[in-house]
Amino acid sequence: MAQRWSLLFLLVVMFVSVGTASARDVLQGDECSIPASQTINGDLFVLCRTLEIDGVVNGNLIGAATTAVINGEVNGSLYLLAGELTLNGEIAGSLHFAGPALRIASESQLSSADSDIFSLSLSTQLDSGARVPNSVIAVGYQLVLDGTVGGEVSFWGSALNITGSITRDVNATVGNSESSGVAELQTLLTFLPLDVSLEPPGLRVAETAQIDGILSYTAPVPGVIAATLSQPPAFTEVITQPDLTQIADIVQTDDAGRQLGLYLAQVVREFLSLFLVGGLVLLISPNGFTAPLRSLASRPMPSAGFGLLTFIISFPMLAILVFSSVLVVVAFGLLQLGDLTVASAVVLGVINLAVATAFYVVAIFISRSLVSLGFGRILLRVLRPGVGGRQNVVAQLALGSLVLAIVFSLPTVGWLLSAIAAFLGLGALLNTVQSQLEARRRPQVARVAGQVALPSRSDEARLYPPPMLNGGQKSPGMDNLPSGFHWWDD
């Protein structure tokens, strides 16, 4: 398997154009297609915006595309990173997919008895009439099984809908079937070019479904099972925060105390997360939050939008970074650079992990601590108007972290408010970094062009020299200034 991957990945390094059908071929460009009259004898590597396969590929198909449609035959396995993949044709091997949406149409065919589906996606759907000979392993938001699965089903996500037939066991971890949070996620998808309809969270087994093995699932509440199963389902409850209606229905003192204890424990965790992360940033850089706080106060809405957009595009950017690193490692491996291959794999793996960890620590933890400090500063000024700002930064952070921890731990709406705070803080941090980079570039550009650009903010003005009148010539009387008079800030 390792040699097969290595051989396929080297193609993207060695070739830069599409050639005629050969033992190994590369297809790249804006719109890529294999017509019904064409046959590729060997493995095919693709790197395209849109991909359509109507012909025959006598080998494995591997690569990346924004949108992919397989109508023809792939007499091997499929390894694809894509925004959306629709399988209408035939695959002799297994299907490996990573991306937002995967759809296995009713006319599709996985011809081998060992054919599996491995999916890391927002939505994986098996249409009615489609059949997977072996297992389905999926990670994502939802898995919709309207067809037939000849092996096991393993799913980790939020929504699992089964209306078809499954020959063996089902193992799943799903969300709360009583939740209505899918509406917000569906609204977010309207901004993306995806034809995906999201199902409500939780497990739902329709009356027409058939599961010959054991159904084992983990969820906050029992799923909706309308079918008559051959064996009783095995349900494992996950303890979560109660929503507002559940809190209102609590009448027993023991239940109320238990739910209150869970809520207070969540408040403590949130407070420690916000306060300790913010305190660590202030310890390392006492003025680290000063400029981002000004940006957050002056431009809250642009900061939230900038943060949201950056968080959304971080996922495909991370995937591209990992994909590029794999290409480099495989290229070194096929050049038989043994030690360099191992070293590059380790170094690039560490770099990818460090970049992802650093970004999401900033996006999830530091950003919310920044908002906590800003909110605490506002509260402290309201409660104690005469108190200065800098000398009470710890009190401001503690007060803001406590109040926001109480808000973020609220059932139903807490996660949404926490996300908004994260987007606000992330956008303010990114705006600050962008302003500092622009400020560093402007003096250099001014010297080259021979003219000075006017600063737009007071903090940028300090980077510039005082204005020189009349082309830099001293005005009359400048040599006879009174004692103690200083021009500009000297």
How many domains? The number is 2
Distinct helical segment count:
10
Estimated helix fraction: 40-55%
Q: Structural class of the secondary elements?
A: alpha/beta
The amount of beta strand, in percent, is 15-25%
**Largest sheet entry:** 14 strands, parallel
Low-confidence stretches: 1-23, 445-450
Cα end-to-end separation: 70 Å
Coarse morphology: flat
What does this structure look like?
This protein has 490 residues and is of the alpha/beta class. The protein has two domains: 2-240; 247-438, no CATH class. It is built from ten helices and 23 strands. The strands form three sheets. Strands 1, 3, 5, 7, 9, 11, 13, 15, 16, 18, 19, 21, 22 and 23 form a 14-stranded parallel sheet that branches. Strands 2-4-6-8-10 form a five-stranded parallel sheet, with no helix packed on it. It has a four-stranded parallel sheet with strand order 12-14-17-20, with no helix packed on it. The radius of gyration is 29 Å and the shape is flat. Residues 1-23 and 445-450 have low confidence and may be disordered.
Quick take:
This protein has 490 residues and is α/β, with parallel strands linked by helices. The protein has helices spanning 2-14, 182-189, 244-249, 253-284, 290-298, 300-334, 338-383, 393-408, 414-449, 458-461; strands at 24-34, 39-41, 43-53, 56-58, 61-70, 73-74, 78-87, 90-91, 95-104, 109-110, 117-126, 131-132, 136-145, 148-149, 153-156, 159-162, 165-166, 170-173, 202-205, 210-211, 215-219, 224-225, 234-237.
